[in-house]
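Why do we care about 3D structure at all? Because function follows from shape, and shape follows, mostly, from sequence. That is the central idea of this module. The next example makes it concrete: a single protein chain, its amino acid sequence, and then its structure expressed as tokens.
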Amino acid sequence: MAGNKRKEFIQKLRSKYKLAIFNEQTYQEVLVMRLSRLNVFTLVGVSAIVLIVLVSLLIAFTGLREYIPGYPDANQRLLIVRNAQRVDSLYIELEKRNKFIENMQNILSGGVPQSLDEPGEGNEDEKVPSSAGNSMEDIEFKRSEEDSLFRALVEKEERFNVTDKPTRNSGRLLENTFLFTPLKGLVVNKFGDPRGHYGVDIVAGPGARVSAVMDGVVIFSGWTVETGYVIQLQHSNNLISMYKHNERLLKSTGEHVKAGEAIANVGNSGELTTGPHLHFELWYNGVPLDPQEYISF
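And the structure:
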């Protein structure tokens, strides 16, 4: 019985049916089609699959996918990537700060910085008896090195103090030196305004070309939390130029650049920014100079 029903079902699927379209007035056959149920099911299935594939391709390779609820658009994806980079930079900066604080606490308490203990193995209890048997020269050596670390820290902080006397005299060497304009635009924040502003802010369109002011070597090219993408050039005569808040850096650390060569694009990166602009600084022997005295923007 089951075999007979199955044969009857297959026979129904294969049975041909005639579909005819007649002219209403002349009753002439206009279109005649002979179909079976199996043909109809096959045609409908293939059409559905093709339609699904076409719709999927249309959504995947066109801008229609941005209209799907829950799918992020291009700006949201860009913000996600930038936030991930900022979080990674913040994590690294926090690790460095915590390491620095721990070392300073060890130095002030008469101990040894943690970085000096990393090559050795063992715990604190095993190291104390070993250091207790050292001579007086070893103890004095540790103290002198800690003192040198503290002196280096103080000198690093004092190096960037701005005084009137060196600021006026340090620019004499640049009187006969030609400096290429890094960016043509409008200066909105001048040197020293607001207080502690060691450069000038030049407003220009996003992505505008930033050029090197002189021949030099890239000594830093990377990301900072406050000033975004930063590039620094070392020139002759102890002159350093800094370019901050860039959108993209075109040179890497260690590369040689020529005067007027493109090194970055204007952007709006970093926390201390209010719009697309270039923060440009000029330093001579550790003293900031007013760029507007030597460059026409």
